[in-house]
């Protein structure tokens, strides 16, 4: 039979409580007391981290405190001597929840276990929130002779919970998307702005990998770079894009920082992703305007030369053939002199449209300068490039002009030779084009 030892239980006037022997052992005579067990339980009681208190079962003005451990005294600000023989009501005050106290009294009178929380008051008058449970103690005959209560001051915990709740409310009120991820990049928190951004309810987002959105940078998928940067202990920052459920590609200014060092031993990441789609689209428009020839809508020479260098580099790495055609409008100076520059501009726009119409999906047309145009044809050997250029030449020649006679073009076309510089390649094609002009115009000459 397990014994409950209650050393030093006394009323304030020195009387022993009912059903307790002078030695303080329930269910046995004092003569049968195991002194070693009593001392051990007394030490446990004294050193228990949580506040513990024992009251009698006297409801005639009570119950009354019989034992209070040091943790309980520290929580309430009273000494044990000040508490012994007093009713727990001395800890109650104006903000103590009367309904909780009534429920407590009903349950302990009925011999039931109680658990609850309310506001109590220290000796110095300061309030605190107590969470406690109370269990009845019965003697060998089953009669309730005392109550044991374990208590905890949860004021700081509730304040922290309120702060976390306030933080969550603040994050949800923020207009920028915010998520918190664990060390495996599983989303454990997402604010409402993030849910709106990705077009999904927040509850559907939690528990999923942040990389399910497949964020991309200009170099490709962003995941490898994000993982590498964060693994090095650095924060990540960059512009990434992902496809929303609507099919629209969104661009965000993504910042990810580790929370390790902020009382987070498990390792979490916080990501903030303001939507900058409108800004990126504006920049793209401006970049396109800088790259495009305003009159014809084709790439201008500067951006076209960069594009050509990139294509030749791709061809060098892959071994795929690439051909380039250069065309010049025949007698363009005569058109300008006879019909005026406005008509000349119309002709340039018309020729640019004919070039676009004759191109395949991956072909690129450039206004190289004045009335000269460059067309490069990726993955195309010279044998295929010549008939393609002939088709473009014929399309230009058969396109009706608004204010001028029919317009023709002379073309030179050639296939790039591995190791050939861009300048040498363009010069070789240019020479073929002038050969076409000197040979009667409105024709294609190839440079093998």
Please provide a written account of the structure.
- Helices cover 37% and strands 24% of the residues.
- The protein is of the alpha+beta class.
- The protein folds into three domains: 30-153, 2-Layer Sandwich (Beta-Lactamase); 160-280, PAS domain (Beta-Lactamase), CATH 3.30.450.20; 292-447, Reverse transcriptase/Diguanylate cyclase domain (Alpha-Beta Plaits), CATH 3.30.70.270.
- The strands form four sheets. Strands 2-1-5-4-3 form a five-stranded antiparallel beta sheet.
- Strand 3 and strand 4 form a beta hairpin.
- Helix 12 (341-358) crosses helix 13 (382-397).
- It is rod-shaped.
- This is Diguanylate cyclase with PAS/PAC sensor.
- InterPro entries: Biofilm_reg_signaling, GGDEF_dom, Nucleotide_cyclase, PAC, PAS, PAS-assoc_C, PAS-like_dom_sf, PAS_4.
- It comes from Mycolicibacterium vanbaalenii (strain DSM 7251 / JCM 13017 / BCRC 16820 / KCTC 9966 / NRRL B-24157 / PYR-1).
- Residues 37-111, 163-233 form the PAS domain.
Main attributes of the structure:
448 residues; alpha+beta; Beta-Lactamase; Alpha-Beta Plaits; 5-stranded antiparallel beta sheet; rod-shaped; disordered N terminus
Number of spatially distinct domains: 3
The named CATH superfamily of the largest domain: Reverse transcriptase/Diguanylate cyclase domain
Give, in spatial order, the strands making up the sheet with the most strands: 2-1-5-4-3
| Helical coverage, percent range | 25-40%
> Which structural category fits the helices and strands?
alpha+beta
Q: Count of helices?
A: 14
DSSP summary, beta strand count: 17
Q: Kindly provide the name of the CATH class of the largest domain.
A: Alpha Beta
